[in-house]
Amino acid sequence: MSKYKIVHYINQFYAGIGGEDMANYEPEKREGFVGPGQAFQGNLKSEAEITATIICGDSYYNENMEEAKNKILSMVKEENPDLFIAGPAFNAGRYGMACGDIASYVEKELGIKSITGMYIENPGVDSYKKNIYIIETKNSAAGMRKAVKSMSAFGLKLLNNEEILSPSEEGYIKRGLRKNIFVEKRGSERAVDMLIKKLKKEEFTTEFPMPEFDRVPPSPAIKDMSKAKIAIVTSGGIVPINNPDHIEASSASKYGKYDISRFKNLTCEDHETAHGGYDPSYANEDADRVIPIDVLRDMEKSNRIGKLHNYFYTTTGNGTAVANAKAFAAEIAQELISDGVDAVILTST
Amino acid sequence: MKVKIITNNPLVYSLYSEDYDIDYQEISYEGILKKTRDYVHKGHELLTHPLSGSVKPNETPFKTLLISSKSKDLNLESLSIIEKSIETSEKFVQNQKKYPADIEKDFMEIDLSLIENVINKLL
Amino acid sequence: MKLELGNIEITDIQFSNESRVKGSTLYVNKKEIENLILEDEHIKEVKIDIAKPGESTRITPVKDVVEPRVKVSGDGGVFPGVISKDETVGTGRTNVLKGAAVVTTGKIVGFQEGIIDMSGKGAQYTPFSQTYNLVLSCEKADDIKAHTYERAVRMAGLKTATYLGELARDIEPDNIESYETLPLMKSKEEFKGLPSVAYVQMLQSQGLLHDTYVYGVDAKQIIPTLIYPTEIMDGAIISGNCVSACDKNTTYHHQNNCVVHDLYKRHGKDINFIGVIITNENVYLADKERASNWTAKLADFLGVDGVVVSQEGFGNPDTDLIMNCKKIEEKGIDTVIITDEYAGRDGASQSLADADEKANAVITGGNANELITLPPMDKIIGHIDYVNKIAGGFEGNMTEDGSITVELQAIIGATNELGFNKLTAREY
């Protein structure tokens, strides 16, 4: 029997090329295994062989997604492997996004089974768990040995077309996919059992957890506000006059980012609201009522805050799909972080 | 209560156009839901459930909805129901192209039946 | 109220020149049933078939399934207000031809749905692959409306089941089960110390092909009310519902309501099962508000500690279900709900059209969008050409060898929301 062929994807760091300084490294294909690939090969033994390793810088991938994806895809295509393994990325956010994205893309475009490994809180998990299997790992490379072991075992199962059991049995992160199975008792009996447990205040497990309503733990308090850079983000729909980007009055599909560096105070001459869910007259009269630029400028002057960020972000909150809102927030947060913003004032209407 | 009918069902249109305020448009099932959402945004209240009928959204081409003819403040309950319904209908895989005329007529009948119970009650 | 169910186990069904039950075989005189059905001028022609478990037979499009029962003693007769006079049923003795069923099919509307496979992969998803079925294929008279035709086929099923049930009147049952519900205050006294529990049954009530009848009354018209569980066993609730095959309750499901049976099993031991609240699922949003207010009020009025709520159908009823659950929970009453899911073919979409965090105890009958490939069958009863038009079907779903790929929702009772089956869905 011939060995299964595997292509492995890693970032610049694990390839030993360098850290953040080398994060713009363009995709490169090398023969055989590189870095953590050695450990994989050890676990895969004689059943499969890593024939090539693709290396790409995290910044390069995340900033040139289309280009990176397609370059890597053609490299994978040349190898025509049976399995594509990305990572593991542990808790590295951009590496996780890259692993999740490229693995999803390879599986979708080439029909090649693809897996990756991440820590449960890696942002790549939520974005890609529906597309591919993500093996749960520890939050740092200290968990490499274990991660490689479980990813290899799971990869071999996929290669051998073995039945994939539940997330807890296999060690992958729940993908949020509902699958039918037969159980021992009929539904009504399960219902009565559950009710009796509920009445007795005993623990029970619902068969369908309601969609989660996000509860976000607050960040630690800012110690010195006089040095903090503050940004303002709103779902109140404030936009420059005439709504240049046509943000929808409701069920928004986008958000806007606007420069306020030259404003000390917003007026009806320069700003208005695009929001269709409340009486707009007060907001249109004076947009400071929704995003208090005037007050924040005063605070900036008296040094109660360090600096007001040069841009504000805005969308309309009414009827906007949670998934959209989440996606907006993820992008906005990323930008705010890279712009060195310490805290955000979020206003709603 | 004064109501407004939004429909793409010609049968509903022919029966009720004389006596009711009716917005009849030859658009898709989903188009009707979105049209209704526009009205809700403008402050009309949703009076019937958008997913009325267990006939699936990818199955029947016809949909009739009732809203209040008066518009007031945005009704959040209405907005929430119409948004969830649009989301639900979008997940059904579109798999029918065109039905033969007799089946199309059956779908019109069902849609009419779902709404006439309500209209009769309002009289 | 106390009812005995006398079960006569049926393990075969055959045509014969005399209708009777001998041993565990049900013999049926075809001609007599034909005459009975053709009494109704709205039915032009009826074809009668037999379908047994394990046979290579597919029945489609199925409208209703009815279990033959007869009232041997106690007030009234089966299907009160429809077949029998409007007397309160649920007491005395009712005999049941256990294992037999009357299945009606008919092309009420062009997209009629519902498959029963008597063998193969599809058989494990429907309870009616396990029953000995007498199948009535009713052709409508020319130029009658869908409403009239639906009613005619509904009545054909009930009349035939009543006719067959009569054959069980004087037969000594193989086993007798006994069910009793005391008047509320007595029940509370008798089972002091046990948490009292009610069952909230939601009935499909939206319009043509979406109706349910209670003592013959269209459930759209009711305000939520109380009913003894044993009344349901005597056919107080019947189905006029033809759509959403996988999660509609056939008359058979009502007669054998599994929530009622499973609550009775724990009655007097872990709980005090005091009775049933029935409510509806109307289209008009104001009706939904009123019905759910009343359901919660009745649960509160009865002073129960917990309820099980069962749903029927897709989409619109999700809103009623969540409203009921929320309002009952707000009264401080523990609630478990039974539903099913439409999570898309890949299972990745949001399952319900409505949700609330108070619904923290949910039983699911499975994902109705999941695909299933059914092998070809030697014999088809009904009209197979409609399979690509039905809710779970799609164009191009039939391969040359005769196997068909459909969503589970095409199969009768597959994701039943009374919890009739062992199917569930889990997150993977």
What does this structure look like?
The complex is a heterotrimer of chains A (349), B (123) and C (428). Helices cover 34% and strands 20% of the residues of chain A. Chain A is globular, with a radius of gyration of 25 Å. Chain A is an alpha/beta fold. By secondary structure, chain B is an alpha+beta fold. Chain B has one domain (3-122). Chain B has four helices and four strands. Chain B has helices at 10-16, 29-41, 76-90, 101-122; strands at residues 3-7, 21-24, 44-46, 64-71. Chain B has a four-stranded mixed sheet, sandwiched between helices. In chain B, strand 1 (3-7), helix 1 and strand 2 (21-24) form a beta-alpha-beta unit. Chain C has 428 residues and is of the alpha/beta class. Chain C has one domain. Helix content of chain C is 21%, strand content 33%. Chain C has helices at 30-38, 146-166, 184-190, 229-233, 251-255, 258-266, 285-301, 316-330, and strands spanning 2-9, 12-15, 20-22, 25-28, 43-51, 57-60, 62-66, 69-73, 92-98, 100-105, 116-117, 132-140, 175-180, 196-204, 210-214, 217-218, 225-227, 237-241, 272-281, 306-310, 334-341, 362-367, 371-374, 379-382, 404-407, 423-427. A six-stranded mixed sheet of chain C has the order 17-19-14-20-21-22, with helices on both faces. A four-stranded mixed sheet of chain C has the order 8-9-1-13. Chain C has a four-stranded mixed sheet with strand order 5-12-10-7. In chain C, helix 7 (285-301) packs parallel to helix 8. Chains A and C meet through strand 7 and helix 8 of A and helix 6, strand 20, strand 21, strand 22 and strand 26 of C.
